[in-house]
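User: Second chain of the day. Same drill as before.
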Amino acid sequence: MSAIATGTTAAAPAVTPPDIEAAAHRLAGHVRTTPVISMSASDLDLPVPVLLKLELLQHVGSFKPRGAFNRVLSAAHVPSAGLIAASGGNHGAALAFVARSLGLRAEVFVPSSSPAMKRDRIASLGATVHVVEGLYDDAQAAATARQAATGALAVHPFEHPDVVAGQGTMARELEHQLAALGTDFDTVLVASGGGGFTAGQAAWFAGRKQVVSVEPETSQCLRAARLAGEPVEVSVAGVAADSLGAKQLGSVAWSIVQHYVGASVTVTDDEIRAAQRLLWDRLRLVAEPGGATALAALHRGAYTPEPGERVVVVVCGSNCDPATVVG
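Assistant: Same format as last time:
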């Protein structure tokens, strides 16, 4: 764990629980309610029993449609040019799904580092895909230039309050599900890339529950921001770079993280792979590296719960070649 550097005045959170409540009503009928399952400690070789929130069963295999739908449905006007975004893969598939659902056009800029199966998935949903040499930030630069030329509605994967509010509907949903079962919890472990998903959960709980950020050792922009006291650039590499490989934490996310994310840990690529395999061996779930990252922290001891602590782990994505997990 690491403390947030001090010395600067923290900005007010850009997203609040009422924003997320409004998003949840806006998204009704557009996104799935994903299941929560209870696992004993021995089920997954963990130090404590755990609840798994299976957000990998969301439309197009990740949490991303929540934020994309909320951004588009909140817009005062969608231009005839439609929607545009850059993506390592999951956000692009979500944007394509949203566009198809709402009868809109979509263009997605994808880095060459993104797996071919993710690019193919975006195209299969009807979006125009442009492959850009490099990493996510290179694709974002190309998308920004294209948006300036076409006037399309930009749907950033994490740097917009409406996107973050949409992602936060998962936390609201989780809390309502467990309340209906008479079950409480203390802590939620969430994988972090550009920070929008983690910030969304933290914005909903607003300090009522502990939100723990989990990142790969090789791509850790949220932890770096906490250490520096502001978003800073980091290097990006590793098995989860396509989904968790942002060079810098978003400013919207930072406005929330500095208030409500009190712990951040990192895991190795080998630990992520082990968590993927564990989900397959014990549950027959295919999770992509980014989707298994939060579980890796609990499985390999990067995060150690206190005695009696009740933990939820979010399994947030399934978009990978199954052969890389089950082979």
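The CA atoms of residues 40 and 220 lie 30 Å apart.

User: Great, on to the next one.
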